[in-house]
Each structure stands twice: as structure tokens, then as C-alpha cells.
């Protein structure tokens, strides 16, 4: 008898349950059932409550800290491998530990590569993720990586604002490539912030390269953590004569007193995706869903069709 390809199955890690439900709905199916056994010391064990033998399995979960989120993804990948799934795709809207993409000083790990090797060892045969902190992380994998860009979500929203005298800004030198890519599609100018740090998450000095007088500025970054850089950049640009300052950041980590900083800053709004579940609500934070993007790409992957149209940058 000829072999028929079974329908794919989609499962979710606990931290991405809401997003996974939206992705599954957009895909046209229901989430698979996973149960968790938890021990009193904190150890946990996931279990697929339906057969995955011979199927394509998508496991959705962002790996933002705590490390339990990464461990949960690894255990679910291993469970799918040992249950004889045919293809196992780790769908990671946010790829955690990505800031450790190189040795920036002696005697430190390259955490992003370690995570890549762990995912492959656990059983992932493909990775789908969005806006990696550094493009080079794709090279840490021996398996296919579909690196999506949230620009496909943000650009239509920015165009809908109909902002005149638009200028795209990068909050640091490392993000200049991303800023130039956005400016190309929006036909706008670019300015760059130059910052110096004494330690992680602490800015010692910031300077602006470019003119923002009379401009509506949009800061572009891949993630926002403590919001120190964004809010300092927004305040600096308003002092230099900008009409308004918005920020688009794919991954909203928003740790520490980030929400308080955003509320007290001169940012008009912060636009993010739901790759990471929001910790609280804020009138200044607008969340755009990435569910349709991931559902579409997962559908194309399953049917072996091109996804190049999803790469605007």
C-alpha cells in the first residue's frame, strides 16, 4: 500500500500556550495534548497523550529565562524523538541565550552555540525562529533553520500610521543593519545612537549620530530587556528636536523596572510581538501577534513549498 503523509501535530510548551493556541487556530487545527508530571523538588516530565509515530511534529516554545523554558523544550523534543516522530520542528518565536553569540572576553561560554547543540541532540530536525539577536547563530546548527523577520508584521503597521518626515533609528551600532533595512522599505532617513557601557544593562554614555529635528522617529531593535537603552534614546531624541519617538522591538523581555521606565519616558509607544507572553499591560505597549506568520511558515514547511516571500529583510 502507498504511504500517505499524516497530518502534522502541534504541541506547546507551557510558557507559550496562548501563542501556540493562536498559531494552531491559524494553521487550522487544535493543539495536541501534553501532560506534565511535577515532582516536589521542581523536576518535571512532559508526556504526549496521543501518538506521534511517523508524523511531523511542531513543538512551540520560546526559551526566554528562566532556564526551565529551555529545559521544557529539550524534554519535549526528546519525548517526540523517542516516540518515533518522523520530523521534529522546534518552533521558537524567541531564541533565548542568543546574546552569548561570541566570546567577548576571556573565559566565557558561547551560550547560543551550546543551546543549538542541545536542541539538535534532543531531537530537533528543523528550527523555526524569528529575529535572532545575531544572524551568525544560524551557523551554529547542522539542521535547517528558518529565520523569520518580524518586519513582515511591523512594516504594515508603520505604514498605516502615515507618519510624515519619518526617520528610522538604531539604538546602537550593532543594530544599524536592521535600521537600514527598514529605511529602505520605508524610504526614510537613518540615525544611530552610539552608547558606551560599563556593565551589562547599564549605559554610561549615549550620543546621537544624525539629525532628528522635526522628525517622527522610529527606533528599531530585536529585543527590549530593561528598556534602559530605548528610553534613554527616546529622551535624547526629543531633546534634540524630534516630533515623536516610537520603538519597535520584536521580543519584549521587559525585565526589572522596564514598564516603569517606559511609562515615565517620552516614548509615544512601544510596539512588540507576542513571541514572549507580556508580564503586564501598559497603555504605551502595543502587541502585534506573530501567530499568522508562524502558522503560514509551518504550513509551507509541511507541504514543502517556498517561504522566501516571508523574508523582507
UniProtKB/TrEMBL annotation:
Pfam families noted in UniProt: Pribosyl_synth, Pribosyltran_N
Domain Ribose-phosphate pyrophosphokinase N-terminal: 9-123
GO cellular component entries: cytoplasm; ribose phosphate diphosphokinase complex
Keyword annotations: ATP-binding, Cytoplasm, Kinase, Magnesium, Metal-binding, Nucleotide biosynthesis, Nucleotide-binding, Transferase
A Gene Ontology biological process term: 5-phosphoribose 1-diphosphate biosynthetic process
PROSITE patterns documented for this protein: PRPP_SYNTHASE
Swiss-Prot/TrEMBL catalytic activity: D-ribose 5-phosphate + ATP = 5-phospho-alpha-D-ribose 1-diphosphate + AMP + H(+)
Listed transmembrane segments: none
Enzyme Commission number, as recorded: 2.7.6.1
Top EC class of this enzyme: transferase
SUPFAM superfamilies, sorted: PRTase-like
Keyword Nucleotide-binding: yes
GO molecular function terms listed in the Swiss-Prot or TrEMBL record: ATP binding; kinase activity; magnesium ion binding; ribose phosphate diphosphokinase activity
NCBIfam families: PRK01259.1, ribP_PPkin
PANTHER family: RIBOSE-PHOSPHATE DIPHOSPHOKINASE FAMILY MEMBER, RIBOSE-PHOSPHATE PYROPHOSPHOKINASE 1, CHLOROPLASTIC
Protein name as annotated: ribose-phosphate diphosphokinase
Source organism of the structure: Galbibacter orientalis DSM 19592
